[in-house]
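queue> holo job accepted (nicotinamide-adenine-dinucleotide)
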Amino acid sequence: MKIGFIGLGNMGGPMAANLAAAGHEVTGFDLSAAMPKGVAAAATGAEAATGKDVVITMLPNGAILRSVAAELIPAMTAGAVLCDCSTVDVESTRAVAEQAAAAGLDALDAPVSGGVGGATEGTLTFMVGGSDAGFATVKPLFDIMGQKAVHCGDAGAGQSAKICNNMILGVTMIATCEAFALADKLGLSREKMFDVVSTSSGYSWSMNAYCPAPGVGPKTPADNDYTPGFAAELMLKDLRLSQQAAEAVDADTPMGQTAAALYTDFVESEGGKGKDFSAMLPRFEKRGRG
Ligand code: NAD
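queue> job finished
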């Protein structure tokens, strides 16, 4: 396939490289990032999108997606698919899908889970919103870049699944960290805490697969001084998107709201920026109830 790829940063770079390595013709554009191996450089986003079967975007946020899409859509060939893999707000995703449809294009929202490691190894999970036909066209590319692609529904369904998943993740990580900090103060060893909870009803991905306590359970960012992994500011971004969506549809999400507030403090005034999101544990460790 002929593929345009816009946004070749930490995630987009290795994703585009994997498509090129699998034999697809990939043309990239980024404001600053270098082109990965096998990807031809275009001078503009519109140039990268012209004459392509699929155009993939991997950008920082919804406002940037909207402005980039406004440039790409007129350059694309009717019948082509615009596939956005960024994590953005549901409203921006739906607005871009409408503009694409008006221009005779198919559009997918296909945010990912799996981080830079998953992007590099080609083991991402894609959560996809959009038409059956669009999904069928891009599925072979999802299979190269990832291990699983779930077609969640119409436009916006992929982003909805992503922010609901990450709201659960933010809440369970906080719950796991505060429970470790309580266990410390009760004199329980972290090893025993892990042994019990990871095989009892308190288990979760945060405890079992991404344990925030150094030296306990599997190897995680906690064992590397909380170097991300998944940075606290990215978790904050996703929690804010979940609360923006909850406000838009009047959903009561008190735990998500609290998690967003805690990560806001952590990132903006407690030194959490640049740390893995599991560094909530040392934050709780240092605190009392006051
Ligand atoms: P990044 O900042 O490394 O990459 C974004 C790239 O977009 C940059 O190279 C930037 O130069 C480029 N860009 C910005 N504006 C542009 C424009 N107008 N035209 C062309 N290029 C432009 O970010 P990332 O970590 O690759 O994340 C990308 C998206 O993936 C985000 O939406 C993020 O939330 C999501 N995501 C990231 C992770 C992760 O672990 N990093 C995991 C899952 C999802």
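queue> The longest strand covers residues 146-153.
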